[in-house]
Amino acid sequence: MKYYAGLDVSQQTTSICIVDDEGKIVAERKVASCPDAIAEALEPFAITRAGLETGPLSVWLWNGLKERGVPIVCMDARHANAALKMMPAKTDRNDAIGLAQIVRTGWCKSVHVKSTASHEARALLATRSQLVRTRCDLENQVRGVLRTFGILFGKRVGGFAKRAEEIIDGELHASPTIQAVVEALMRARANILEQIRHLEAKVRSIARQNNVVRRLMSVPGVGVITALGFVATIDDPGRFKRSSSAGAYLGLTPRIYASGETMRSGRVSKRGDDFLRRSLYEAANALLTRIPQFSALKSWGLRIARRGGYRKAKVAVARKLAVILHAIWISGEPFRWSSQEPRELA
User: Fold this and answer.
1) Which of 16, 52, 88, 272 could form a disulfide with 251 if both were Cys (CB 3.0 to 4.6 A apart)?
2) Measured in whole angstroms, how far is the alpha carbon of residue 340 from the centre of its chain?
3) Do 295 and 273 contact (CB within 8 A), yes or no?
4) Using one digit for the tens of pLDDT, what is the confidence trace for 190-210?
């Protein structure tokens, strides 16, 4: 007799439902949300397959259960939710029952669980991005405070800190309160900048030790942040049979609606990782507007820009970059500036 288990995970507890190959409920449990407790609850049944939805704890639990020999699959929460909506009431118990039946029938899409190294790199990049946004918020707050009192920040040679120092020592000398406010904001900005520099040094260190990242950086417009973000997000290039699937995975292809004689193509889907999608868009912008050296990719992007404008061209080039980066990763070849350039063996 084969047994299948559905795990409905919450932060404190996990509801478990075990069914046989005919769909009959064999056992139900409620245990703590940790790999040891879940594996202990499943051990007496020789589980054929267990399943849980994607969520905040799914990576930790999936890795922990795999290490303990549990045949676990991680399901796309959107697909599971579509099936669970058929349940008469939304409870943890009912969700566990529904997940067990989904796992038994195989009507689920297994999600790739990224490696620990990929999650570490993503955490590093996400934290740096958050600190950069915080720095921008602090700078805008300084400008807003000064504007209230008729002081325009403007631009000066020497950068933001130099201009702020001039205003504190000069125009704010007669206003100790606002002077203290601006000084506090500038101290916070200096601390944020120090942490950003520390994280960027860590990013460069990781990139130097990763041959794939360094190879991807040979593509014009692609810097260390985009290259490392691509490697951390894709994790395993073998997930895609074709390089063109990388663009769709990152939400850079149009939405399609087709039914009968109706066929509509909409805007890009914007599915997948938002950080990497924005990074590729910025790389496309740099390629089209800042890099003087021409390439077959840049010429293709400029032709699109002449027909439909630069905004559409940047999205198209961003998708093309995702395809090229995946192809370079798979083949081991460097970027070819011209389509006539001969292929080099890796």
Assistant:
1) 272
2) 34
3) no
4) 999 999 999 999 999 999 999
